[in-house]
Amino acid sequence: MPCDGWTLFRRAAAGALALTMLASALAADDAASSTAPALDAPSVAAFGRDATRLTLPRAGRYALRVESARGTALRLVDRLTGAQPWQGAPGATDGRVDLLLDAGVYRVETEGPAPPSTRADQPVDEAARVRVDAFVERHRAPLPTLPPARATTATLGDLEQRSWIVEQPIDGPFAVVAGGRHLAALRLWRDDGWLRPEAPRGIEHAPVVGQPQWQLHL
Known about the structure:
By secondary structure, the chain is mainly beta. Helices cover 0% and strands 44% of the residues. The protein contains no helices and 16 strands. The strands form 4 sheets. A 5-stranded antiparallel sheet has the order 2-4-9-6-7, with no helix packed on it. A 4-stranded mixed sheet has the order 11-12-1-14, with no helix packed on it. A 4-stranded antiparallel sheet has the order 3-10-5-8, with no helix packed on it. The chain is globular and about 65 Å long.
């Protein structure tokens, strides 16, 4: 029977989506790795428009975010597919976007609020900081096999993912249901590392009053 893999992603408690690595090439300690993502200039202008270049040596799920004192929006621009929607609001909230990205070079654009009125001899010296983090796989290789027709429980923190192997009969139907308060995504991969086209269907429900959970059906 062919073996497919599926991966859970978590989103931050604040509501930003959290994104994934390929099931066959999972994230390790990027801080000590030569395959860590790199920004040409992590610091960008806190006021008005600015941009920096992002280089990703390998495919994976990444969280892109900007940190500022006043609120800075952020978006990713791909040289082939163009710009993603803006996330965050200038002067109000900082932007964050979690995306599944291929290896390559991207442009990260930011937009802060309009600069405050100051005297010419009192320039505003303020910057925002762009961060990029790869999601970290919490299962060690070899990946565990997901048992059929049985519930499996695991924890996920922000910027984390968990992957399992699914043994599927050839052309046979199967279903996966995953749930959690901050669950962000559920993706299915072929055993050769290619992403399958199935997209999960999301449903919000509240098994405990006041504690809504997000269910993903695949």
